[in-house]
Amino acid sequence: MIIKKMHEMGIRSEHAYLAAMTSVGLSVVAWMGSLKMEHGTGLARADRWGIFVGEWAPTFFGLGLALSHYEQQDGTLTAEVHEFRQPRKAG
């Protein structure tokens, strides 16, 4: 199973979520960079670059969810994430 192999390699759900958010940011940077650096090609090419990089985000979010699910079943969910998901007890 791919998720199990990724987990064994040390890739955690937090890493996949970070990659997804980075992809969103890179999408904006790629769009703006293409728009400014390639003056003659116009908006269409800049849009294609932004969309190309932006398409990575859903894949990384999906991997993050799958890894999180595996971590919950395996019992290796990190303390920070576990505390975030569990409501704090009063007192």
TrEMBL record:
<keyword id="KW-0472">Membrane</keyword>
<keyword id="KW-1133">Transmembrane helix</keyword>
<feature type="transmembrane region" description="Helical">
    <location>
        <begin position="16"/>
        <end position="35"/>
    </location>
</feature>
<keyword id="KW-0812">Transmembrane</keyword>
<protein>
    <recommendedName>
        <fullName>DUF2637 domain-containing protein</fullName>
    </recommendedName>
</protein>
